[in-house]
Structures are given as structure tokens and as C-alpha cells.
Design brief:
single chain; about 475 residues; alpha/beta; 4-stranded antiparallel beta sheet
Length: about 475
């Protein structure tokens, strides 16, 4: 009897284990997405030794296997950069008169050295509810989701009202070397022509593990470097003069470090702080309302800066010294000294106006100020109309009931700057939620929460359909 009961118990236990395993196993479409995501993440697409072309080909193969006609996808790269391929594909819609919707994501990633990471950066690891790998978040999460969208739309026989374009591009992380969005806009602009674009640039905010705010990014600051230089004839260090270039530049940089550009809000950043004030602790909310006042409260802005440097960057143009070099020998007076000052300029502010401000703040005629690199691209923030925000609200309420929708401006730079400058409204929208530590993008042990990735996939699948089926 005992042996019989034991046998029954074992059978029951095994059945329970099998049932639990079946319950834990992902649905077929989720399993397929996980495989696609893993394949993309584990293809090295760093500039040094990687290949965007190989990743683009892998995603193209997924689209072709789903039934997308071969003529509706291309891999494009300049002849002198065969490893910098971008995938451009289209799911044809019913109304050719409507401009397409463009889904944009970059597939190149920042360098990562195995000896620096806790895990192999080019092997996707799922651990304690997180995915870890270089590109797990930036930006292969969105690239995988967008590719998966087209795969599932095609498999389901879905025909949108307007075309849905997909562009998986290369060079966003190293635009000083090559950027395929810039190259395509210069050589084949029709490939990226669209009514509007969904891109990286905004995510979602978790508080205590729960979704608090879903961000929609409209506009970004303009990137511009300036070279500050001072020179002299030099000489023997035993005979110092009053015109030491290092001393001149050091004094100017100290004055620049103490300077704050004026607070200047636009409709997007004003909406951001209004929304954040409703979500923040009372003291922080009071300071946010104070910077929204006219005139803005400088002391309140300073307190917000202490709490979150990103808030200060949202309020104003910023310029910060990032590199310095000078002198030619330890026993000689310097002949040259140079510093790089990186500015992130609010939309609508001319680059020359910022240069003149630097000259005024440095207050030293011995210091020359000149723009460095390509001039920053002047753009304006695209409007956050009901056409954009309505579908976001509808879909978000089905996944994260009651989550706040928060407009935001990117204080960094994305490929959206090339499209906005060309008059193509580009919005950052992902539905990918992060905690206060973030995704560690560009840093060690980059990660994304598994649930955030899967919820973002669900969100973008539905919101893209609503945009694609809209009448205008």
C-alpha cells in the first residue's frame, strides 16, 4: 500500500511539474520573438570588429521567412563600408496616397570588452528577471520588436491602411565616422520618407517596480562642440610671464563652470515638468512648479539640479568642458592649450548665439572660441497632437491602467535629428520601462527587465497598428 501511494504521489508530483513547466513556457509567438531578439543581440555590431550588415541580413531573413516579398526589403551600404549595412523594408498598405509610417532603430552598439563585464557582453543572459548583453536595451530591443511587428503582421495577413516602413540602421553610436541615416538622407532620401517616425529616445519610469510614467519624446537638443584655444610664444619655465595660455584658459573655464544659461521652457518641457510635479514628492513638486512660474525660481532650479542633473539639462542650454590638452614639456612655458566644450543647445537657439555667449562668459580676449566638427543641426520639436497622443493613451490603458503620459525632450542626440531637420516629425516612443538605475546603456552590464521588454513588444504592436490605420 505504501509503495502504491508513493507511486501515485510520484506520478502526481511529476504531473504537477509538467503542468508548471507548460504554464511557464512562453507562447509560440513569444518564443519566436525571444529567438529573434537573441539572434540580433548576439551578433556583434561594434564598429571595431562587428558587422551591421550581418545583423541586417539576419533580420531580413526573418521577414522573408514570414512571407514579405523579396522586392520589399533591401540592405543598403556605401561601397567603401560593406559592414555598415542598413535594412530597409516595407509592409505595403491599402492606400498608396497616404505617406508611410517609419519604424526606426539602430543596430550598431557601443564597444564592450569581455574582461570588464560580469558576463560575456555578446551572449544574451537571462537572470533574475533581466536580460543582460551589449545592445540588450540600446537599441536592439526596439530593433527586435519592430522586426517582430512586421513578421507577425505579415503572418496574420494584416494589411495596414498606410505602408509601414522599417529601417534598421548603422552608425548612430559613431556618427563622426559614419551614420547610415545621415547617408540615406543625403543619397536616397525616399527610403526614409514618411508621415512621421517612431524612434528611440523615451521609455517609461518604474517606481517600486510599478509603471508610473510613460514618456513620449518630441524634439531633442542640438549637439555642438566648441574648441577653446589660447597661445603664446612660450619660453623657459624658469622665466614665467604674465601670458601663460594654461592660466588664461583655466580662468576662463572656471568662469564657464560657474555660469548657467537662462531657463527656457518650450511646450514639451513645460508639459514634462507639469506632469512630473503631479508624480513627485511635495517638496520636489513645489520646486517644479516654481521653475514653471514667470519668472522661474533659480533657487528651485538649483535644488532640482542637485536631485537630478537631467532636470537641469531639460531646463536650459548646457555647455561643459570635456577635454583639455596643452604644453609640450615639463620645463617649458606652454605655447598652446586647447579645451573642448560640449554644448547641448535647446531647440530654436542658434549655434552662433551660444558661441557668442561663451566668448562673453570666458571674458578673455586671449581665448579663441570656434565651432568644432560638423555644425549642429537646427531642429524644432514636432507637435504632440491628439493624433500622436491618442493611440498612446488608448493602448497604455490596456496594459498599464492609469499610467501617466509624460511628454519629454531628449537632452542627448538620436538619429531623429536628421529626420526632424528634414521636416519629418520624429517621436521617441518605446513603452520600455526602467527603474531609477536605468538600462546601463553604453556602460558595463547593460540590461533590460524581461517583463519590460515583453510589455513594450505588446504596446508597440498595438500602437503601430493604430497609427498605420489612421486616415491621415
Amino acid at each position: 500500500m505504501s509503495r502504491s501511494l508513493t507511486g501515485v504521489s510520484m506520478v502526481a508530483a511529476m504531473a504537477a511539474l509538467w503542468a508548471g513547466a507548460a504554464a511557464a513556457a512562453p507562447a509560440p509567438d513569444e518564443a519566436a520573438f525571444r529567438a529573434l531578439y537573441r539572434e540580433l543581440v548576439e551578433i556583434n555590431t561594434t564598429r571595431s570588429v562587428g558587422s551591421c550588415t550581418r545583423a541586417a541580413q539576419a533580420m531580413q531573413a526573418r521577414l522573408l521567412a514570414a512571407g514579405l516579398p523579396a522586392q520589399d526589403s533591401r540592405i543598403l551600404a556605401p561601397s567603401d563600408r560593406p559592414q555598415a549595412g542598413a535594412l530597409v523594408a516595407v509592409l505595403r498598405g491599402r492606400d498608396s496616397k497616404l505617406k508611410p509610417l517609419l519604424l526606426l532603430a539602430h543596430i550598431d552598439v557601443v564597444e564592450a570588452r569581455r574582461e570588464d563585464w560580469q558576463r560575456d557582453p555578446f551572449t544574451l543572459v537571462e537572470e533574475d528577471g533581466w536580460f543582460y548583453a551589449r545592445g540588450a536595451s540600446d537599441d536592439k530591443a526596439m530593433a527586435a520588436i519592430f522586426t517582430d511587428n512586421l513578421v507577425r503582421y505579415r503572418q496574420a495577413g494584416y494589411v495596414p491602411r498606410r505602408d509601414i516602413k522599417l529601417a534598421l540602421t548603422c552608425g548612430e553610436e559613431s556618427p563622426d565616422v559614419f551614420n547610415s541615416v545621415k547617408w540615406l538622407m543625403e543619397t536616397q532620401p525616399e527610403t526614409l520618407a514618411a508621415a512621421f517616425v517612431l524612434n528611440e529616445g523615451a521609455g517609461g519610469e518604474l517606481r517600486d517596480g510599478k509603471p508610473l510614467a510613460l514618456q513620449v519624446q518630441a524634439g531633442e537638443k542640438v549637439y555642438q562642440d566648441f574648441e577653446l584655444s589660447a597661445s603664446d610664444v612660450g619660453g623657459h619655465s624658469s622665466r614665467p610671464t604674465r601670458d601663460n595660455p594654461i592660466t588664461h584658459l583655466a580662468g576662463g573655464l572656471e568662469r564657464l563652470g560657474a555660469y548657467q544659461f537662462p531657463i527656457a521652457l518650450n511646450p514639451v518641457t513645460r508639459g514634462y515638468f507639469e506632469a512630473q510635479a503631479r508624480l513627485s514628492a511635495p517638496a520636489v513638486a513645489a520646486d517644479m512648479r516654481a521653475v514653471l512660474a514667470d519668472p522661474a525660481d533659480a533657487a528651485a532650479a538649483d535644488r532640482l539640479w542637485t536631485i537630478n542633473p537631467g532636470w537641469n539639462s531639460t531646463l536650459r542650454t548646457t555647455c561643459v568642458a570635456t577635454q583639455i590638452e596643452g604644453g609640450h614639456a615639463s620645463n617649458a612655458l606652454p605655447q598652446q592649450v586647447r579645451a573642448n566644450v560640449n554644448c547641448r543647445i535647446l531647440p530654436g537657439v542658434p549655434v552662433e548665439e551660444v558661441r557668442q555667449t561663451l566668448v562673453r562668459v570666458l571674458a578673455d580676449e586671449r581665448i579663441k572660441v570656434a565651432p568644432r566638427g560638423e555644425p549642429g543641426m537646427a531642429t524644432s520639436a514636432p507637435p504632440l497632437s491628439p493624433k500622436i497622443l491618442g493611440p498612446v493613451r488608448e493602448v497604455a490603458d490596456t496594459i498599464w491602467p492609469g499610467v501617466a503620459i509624460v511628454p519629454t525632450m531628449s537632452t542627448g542626440a538620436t538619429d531623429g535629428r536628421f529626420l526632424n531637420a528634414a521636416g519629418i516629425p520624429t517621436y521617441g516612443l518605446s513603452g520600455l520601462f526602467h527603474d531609477a538605475e536605468g538600462s546601463r546603456a553604453h556602460g558595463l552590464n547593460e540590461r533590460i527587465r524581461v517583463r519590460s521588454l515583453l510589455d513594450g513588444r505588446r504596446f508597440l504592436y498595438e500602437v503601430v497598428r493604430r497609427y498605420a490605420d489612421a486616415a491621415d
